[in-house]
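Quick one, probably user error.
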């Protein structure tokens, strides 16, 4: 994960004149914002790009004509648009069930930290009072149900992950965030990790000195009788550095409300 140059920010606060548009291209998402006198128009296309083919940079260009290539359009009408537009990255609004490409077996009485990369969302606000227009996932994610049956559980997003153990090998993308997930197996038998349910709305998003986006670390503990979850220990080295970094977005949901139903104790499957 080492690199010599800081990652350039693709998010910004900017001003658009009437009839001025701006397009962002992430490879897996192309998005245009157009300001008219009485409305904001947000157009976008998602492209199904393989993880290893995701582009390393985000490009922007001024564009307000020939926008028919965009398949999706959202219109936001007002009496008079203001020039200010605020773009920020945010974490997904639901838990993400991540599936490693290869199943992981954690030995008894062992622990491991997996560095999981997740794609962010594109948040659009306008005006000095930062009115939210919409949030668009930079990479389209499919829905999945996580729980022991169709009655008990929750609707989540599904994503695949490399589940890297060496953080220096995490793929660097300016529109992805790194989640450190520590898994503790306090059982007498191996823990099979095929899917992990991560309560993303309970996490903070921060940027470190190199421009990389990280979230709060979480710890998942599996014992003989139950599963437990907690945010990263604030006394450890990672958390100490984390709170020195710039806060991009606070957690959307308190941890207690973001947990999977306490009626069942499954974080892994």
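Nope, works fine. Designed sequence:
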């Amino acid at each position: 994960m080492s690199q010599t140059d800081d990652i350039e920010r693709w998010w910004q606060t900017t001003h658009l004149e009437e009839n001025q548009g701006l397009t962002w291209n992430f490879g897996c998402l192309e998005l245009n914002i157009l300001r008219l006198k009485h409305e904001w128009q947000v157009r976008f296309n998602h492209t199904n790009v393989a993880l290893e083919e995701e582009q390393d940079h985000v490009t922007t260009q001024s564009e307000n004509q020939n926008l028919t290539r965009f398949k999706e359009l959202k219109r936001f009408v007002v009496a008079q648009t203001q020039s200010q537009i605020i773009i920020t990255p945010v974490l997904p609004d639901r838990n993400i069930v991540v599936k490693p490409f290869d199943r992981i077996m954690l030995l008894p009485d062992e622990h491991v930290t997996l560095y999981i990369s997740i794609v962010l969302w594109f948040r659009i606000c306008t005006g000095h009072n930062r009115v939210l227009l919409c949030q668009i996932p930079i990479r389209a994610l499919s829905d999945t149900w996580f729980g022991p049956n169709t009655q008990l559980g929750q609707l989540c997003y599904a994503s695949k992950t490399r589940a890297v153990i060496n953080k220096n090998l995490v793929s660097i993308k300016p529109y992805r965030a790194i989640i450190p997930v520590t898994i503790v197996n306090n059982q007498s038998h191996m823990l099979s990790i095929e899917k992990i349910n991560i309560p993303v709305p309970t996490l903070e998003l921060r940027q470190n000195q190199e421009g990389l986006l990280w979230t709060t670390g979480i710890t998942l503990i599996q014992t003989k009788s139950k599963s437990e979850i907690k945010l990263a220990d604030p006394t450890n080295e990672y958390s100490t550095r984390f709170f020195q970094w710039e806060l991009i977005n606070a957690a959307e949901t308190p941890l207690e409300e973001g947990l999977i139903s306490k009626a069942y104790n499954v974080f892994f499957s």
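The first strand starts at residue 13 and ends at 15.
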